[in-house]
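tool_call: predict_structure(chain=1)
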Amino acid sequence: MPRLSLYRPQKSNDYRFLDRTIKEMFVVGGTDLYVHKYLGIPDTGASADLTQPQYDTLDPTNIQDLLFLENRDRKYDTSIYRIRGHYNVMNLDFDLSQFGLFLNNDIIFITIHYNDMIELIGRKLMVGDVLELPHLTDYHPLNEAIPVGLRRYYQVTDGNFASEGFSQTWYPHLWRIKCEPLVDSQEFSNILSQPLEKDNFLGDWDPTKTYIIPAGQTYTIQYGDKTYTITGASPGGTTVPAGVAPTDPLYWQISTADNLRDIIGRYNKNIAINDAVIAEASRLLPKTGYDRSQLYLVPTLDGEPEAPVNIIAPTGNPVPTRATLMMMTNPMYKNPSPVLRIGAEARKKLWSLTGNDADKLREQLAITLKTAKLAPQRTDTGSGQVDGTLVLIAKATGPISAPYGTADNTYSTADNFPTFTLTSLAVPIGSTVISVQPLDVTQDIAPLNNLSAFVTSVNGTRTDIFDYGTRIVSVNRVNNTFVVDIPTVAFMPAGTEITIEPNFPYTISQQMDFRADCDPRFVYVTRSSPQGFGYTDGYMIGDGTAPNGFPVGSGITFPVQPAVGDYFLRTDYLPNLLYRWDGSLWIRIGQSSRAGVAFDSTVPGQQSQLSSFINNTQTLTLTDGTVVPQQQPLSTLLTIQPD
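tool_result:
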């Protein structure tokens, strides 16, 4: 008598009996699964890239990209297979961890009868197949305009025999697959681009088929990842010859109806959110880069505002080089008063001056100091500074003559003293006619101009040729001479340099804001266009405008007869360049590099690397007629062109 054994080398009647019993359990207690069968990689045309081979037939084992091991363009069967399966339903809960919120139960494991799967589908369910669970269809979406229920799709990410599916005969009867929610990506475009209305859907376009559309009917087909429609517009209907691609507008039109991607994918919603974020960012920060020119530091010493430095007067005599800011208190004062304390040695030199020198110096030192509060800087929503910034204001109480300040009241970059020099001939002492070498017609020598000159002896003693305040009365360009209002006080040898300082008859403001970018020696006067942007600091802050809002011309060629100090913006450069005419040359002082944040390079002011280079939409035509996009993906960098 042979030994008893449930195992048989071949599948016996015991196996078949158990298999039918197990299948019946799925028929009774399982749920329907709609299977979108993965067929393989469609023919995308010949390619010179050997890592992307071309296949003659559809095969799910083919690999589209041998370098990245990806199957990005997938083809799915237009026939839907229905099979029974079973899985454990779980609540979808979020776990809060140190890394954020995570959905812990979005992966399900579905068990399927193995032989039923082979009989219906023809193979095992594998990675790439897509399942639709009809019992999870949401028939009450929040958007009532959706004409169909929201379907629930899962992609198969793994498959193997289920451990509980082995019977007493040691043969497996169940196939266990791991499924994750379907995401809107390129791999599943063949499924998600299908129209919602399937009654008149003809599937993928067949180049060998002639499409005959009855009169008054509308049919749709799928071509690539888009849906096209054709209507029987004529009384006899419409006939599309074989081989006419849906891109031919004579027969086909792109469908504007919603597809599966529109209702179950989040692509459109994400695009809308992204556009809203960009629009809000453009409103809050309409330009790229950042501007720090509005930030400044008040010079301090021991926690108090530091005193003005280098207080000078145009007398040529020694004067204090530094003063100390102090608060003067008095029982008669309601509040302490700020004063400038000058050292004892400096006071001796100061009060030893007599006559005109003393009067001129006292005029320069006759100032009052007081504090002022600037208006708080706030945005349009009200956020920003709570209180205004406290600054120190210096106001002159007496007449101010010279030196003048700069056009933008900054000591660092603008032309502090727009002067030039002349070379004199020999001029005796007490003369009012000054002979110089031939004058240049471009030199601005005019009446009321200030001038100065000096000679230095062997022992280093300096002798001034002109008294302080000497000015030009008239100019004779024919004889290369000019007349001064005060005779020379010393002999001027030939070759002595005479400094000419033009006199600017413009309004002088005696009030200035004592900040880090001001110097108490200068007072504000609009006398010449600045040669720079002062203490402006930041990143990509040039906007094509001139300092202090001066007028700016623009064009692709410079003007023929510019005046000294004129600005001109060259628009034929990218970014646009700002120039200033200094009398002989156009000097570049800035560029319009602060563009908007939009990505459209055709919009004025948006021409930037972000719009024209990173988001480049231009194409290039090669010598052989091949048209290639100028923007190349990183995957093509490793492509080796054959010799």
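agent: Confidence is low (pLDDT under 50) at residues 308-322, 399-417, 504-527. Proceeding to next step.
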